[in-house]
Amino acid sequence: MRKKLVVGLAFVFGSFAFGQDLPTNPEPGKCYVRCVTPDVYENQEVRVMVSPAYKKLKVVPATYTNVNETVVSKVAGEELAVVPAVYGTETFDVVTKEASQRLVKVPSTSSRETETVVVKEASYKLKIVPAVYENRTFEVVTRPAYQKVEIVPAVYETRDVVIPVKEASQRLEVIPAEWGQETVTYKKREFGSSISITKASFTDDFETVEIKPAAAEWQMSEIPPADCNSSNPDDCRYWCYKAIPAQNEIIPVKRLAADASSVRTPDCDPNNNGGKPCGEGTFTRTIMVKPASTRIIEIPGTTKTIKKTVMVTPPTTRIIDVPAEVKTMTRRVMVTPPTTERIEIPAVTETVRKTIITNESTRVEDIPAVSQTYKKTVMTQAPTTRTIPVAQKETTLKTTKLVEDARVVETEVPAVYKTVTKEVLTKKGGLTTWKEVDCKFLTYNDLNINWNLGSATLTPAAKREIDTKLLPVLQTGVSVEIASHTDSRGSAASNEALSQRRAQAVTNYLISKGINPSKIVSNGYGERRLVNRCKDGVSCTEREHLQNRRTQFRVLDQKN
After folding, report:
1. Disulfide check for 292: which of 80, 192, 266, 514 has CB 3.0–4.6 Å away?
2. What's the confidence (pLDDT) of residue 322?
3. Is the domain 444-557 a CATH 3.30.1330.60 member?
4. CA-to-CA distance for 180 and 287, rounded, in angstroms?
């Protein structure tokens, strides 16, 4: 009962898998294939770091040299010497009586001149009514008013004046320089440093790389049930969607635990030297504590008192007014002119003499100053000091100089990588429908490859044959089987291995052209599938043997 139930389920499942989508209206002579969309894989190269990059350190020790160093044992200075002042005699004039002025009186002048004076004005008379006249008096200036100047003389007095006979001067006194001793510290020896190196350390580890991902595919049972009621035994086989586990590769790697490092230690530590700086020496040097200087001593000047006449009040003038002189005269004047005919009566004139007097004035006359010549001693050049240089003294000391301190030479050791090829699923496949195919691709198709005897190396002609006939088929996305055969000559085991190598040679060439290895199945059949009578122990021609030495391909499935 249980067996019948299993058969029934298998039949239902087979009918569902195949019966539901068999080709409708198939044509005689046509070939069909169930189009199972293959899983599409892509090869990717993954770089795995099996050894990390690290540093190698090498110590180059410090180098020293001995140097003679010149230092100043006595600094340069200066001494001062006095250069005395230079004196000379010069003459000078002293005004004993200053210049002044006096006024000289310029007397007035007089002149005589005549003047015609109208004593009777011109008039006219009327014939009918005579004119009426009367006498009038008037004054005539015979001498106009003027001024005369009276001189007021200047006032003088005698004064005492102090004049220098010898000017004040100076003299210099030198204060010598003061010298002392000092202790100078210098670098007698330079110290470098020492370097200790710790090498890089590593730990062993491993890294798992997935070279082929997990997948799944439909698989049919090999043997159909014995009680299958269908004429086609494939209808009763089980279809199982089995998982294909991922393929991993474990790669041993090294991890960098700690990179190389260095520690620098000074060759001389002041803490271990009593707190004193390392490599120091001392020497005594003479220095100038106080430079030389000068002190100025004043020398007073010499004077002399003389008498000098000085004008206190300059001369002036006083003006005296002199009144004008006048003369009273009488003249006849027409009071009423005639009212009728007028008769002109000429004027009567009289000549009068008068005196013209100019005013008195003064004229200024200069009185020159009176001076006297004296001699005096003057300093023509002040006292100075002359600098006397004191030469610097030097001494030679031996010192140790650091040419180059200890250093670390760093070398980079690059990381080591390993390239692993893994398959990556780019497109998931599955069951689809039936599809008409070219029947010639479902059977074996010969590749015209003439292998050299015992060789599995492709010739250029063989590669051209693959490029022309097989490569275009694979580029459509189908899967193929490469089958290679030999003739019966030789042992069966050696023929089996040779045919396998030849099939693999074709596969390797296709992979180099970019074909995914999952699309190729390579099988070597040796002498198991002879196409003629030429088996072991049968005598055949070379042409007959050549028919068995063949390489073929056939399509395993079709792409969607």
Report:
1. 80
2. 81
3. yes
4. 5
